[in-house]
Amino acid sequence: MLKSLFVSIGIGGASVDTILDSNQVVVGETLTGRVEIKGGSTDQAVRGVILELVTKCLVEANGDNKVHADIVVASGRVDLDGIRAGERKSLPIAIPIPPGTPLSVGTTSTRLRTRLDIANAVDATDSDIVQIVPNQVMSAIFHGLETAGFRLAETEIEYNRRRQQPFVQEFDFKPRSMRDYGVEEVEISFKPIRNGVEVALTVDRRGGFFSAGGERTARFKVTESELRHLDMASELRNAIAMLR
Question: Are 82 and 43 in contact (CB under 8 A)?
């Protein structure tokens, strides 16, 4: 009786540990590994293992007042039919990473929360940092901007569940040299398409005595098959020049 009471408040209960094949996964691919479950001091009605990839996102903005919250970007579950006292189980996991999942670039970080779904007890938990890395096309665009003379300065993720693509991650690049004095910043975001991405490229122009500042945006698509034929740095440099 006393043992069951302790387990119900999280003392001497089952524990869980997630072991990933790799802490890095390319966006659009699958995060794999296993969960190790160890039974506690008494049998427990563990109904399953719940896995959630969580990223902090901007959910509301009103002027300078910005509200951020942890949002689940991908999830998985492994069902169980209880676990006995002292029993050990090792179960494979596979979590598909949607193509629109925010990337672990700049200040953006993602963690995998794992918890046991236990009836009438405190759920055992585990947490692991996961790096969501760019795919081949995204990497080429990032490298192209760096080569064209811009450095990544800031990232932010906007979340709106009413949009078809609920996550919009913006990457802000600053010019490295006076060559681009008229450019305040260059901002890009990605929208997944078949075998590639659609890029929204925005140039924020610096105002002066004889010219007004402001933003201009262009959209273009890049696919994997096009990469070998493109000089990405030159293409981006030309696009930025047209928007200045």
Answer: yes
